[in-house]
Amino acid sequence: MTSLRFVERLRDLVDGVEVVLSDIWGVVHNGLESFPEACEALHTYRRRGGIVIMITNAPRPADSVQRQLRKLGVADQTYDAIVSSGDLTRHFVADHPGKKIYWIGPERDSSIHRGLNAVMAPLEQADYIICTGLFDDETETAEDYRAMMLQAREHKLPLVCANPDIVVERGDRLIYCAGAIAELYRELGGEAIFYGKPHRPIYERAMALAAERRGHPAPLDRVLAIGDSVRTDLTGAHGFGIDCLFLTRGIHSEEFEGIDQLDPASVKELFGHPPRALMRELRW
What we know:
- This is TIGR01459 family HAD-type hydrolase.
- This protein has 2 domains: 10-57 and 198-279, Rossmann fold (3-Layer(aba) Sandwich), CATH 3.40.50.1000; 90-194, Rossmann fold (3-Layer(aba) Sandwich).
- It is built from 8 helices and 13 strands.
- The protein has helices spanning 36-47, 62-71, 85-94, 146-154, 178-187, 200-214, 230-240, 264-271, and strands spanning 19-22, 51-56, 81-84, 100-104, 119-120, 128-131, 159-161, 167-170, 173-176, 192-194, 223-227, 243-247, 277-279.
- The strands form 3 sheets. It has a 6-stranded parallel beta sheet, with helices on both faces. It has a 5-stranded parallel beta sheet with strand order 5-4-6-7-10, covered by helices on one side.
- Strand 12, helix 8 (264-271) and strand 13 form a beta-alpha-beta unit.
- The protein is globular and about 55 Å long.
């Protein structure tokens, strides 16, 4: 299938959908402000009996993500639960007690280590790297880490990527994320371990939480993912076997100008596997 279906409202898609797995950044906020219509759409879907699990590549625990959502004006009633790549990374650390960690990331991500008795060490003494982001994502790119990644490769250090995103929106700008460093490390021959979309563990955890709240698992053909990234949201949903509503106003907005005129070959090149439907921005 290479045709695209455009919809104006979420209610046109959720007949028979029991669970929504929604991205956060780019769907309900842009890092600086929330999107009230998107929040209201998810809240309305929940009031009608649906379950909303937020799945995010944020490199922080779910409770830290929730605090950020509250600050941005995203009400708790918008969703049932949050699953973050930070939570999954914390499980990795807990499963490797006593191992020395070299941490790459900004101080705001320090909650990823909270309560884990993590042992921090310089790069040359570490057993593995955890990357939650760039030290300064306002000014740096992955290329600033090339020498460090070459040194890490020489020490054969695994790099655990706590946020597979390459870029995200911050207001009207795109900033680089941990995924950009992890992909550079892979290109240089290093071993990278990814937690978060598009990889299965985050979807498995989200479906388990949905089953807890519903009292029984939902069939995959009654689950809808929502996101704005081809690389993480769309690829992850397709790999897990669920449909995806793709929002075009996010990180790919320039690529999607005039998308309704695309020929089938261009659609396939852009998406690989087209989403179930496209919408500019989420609204009920």
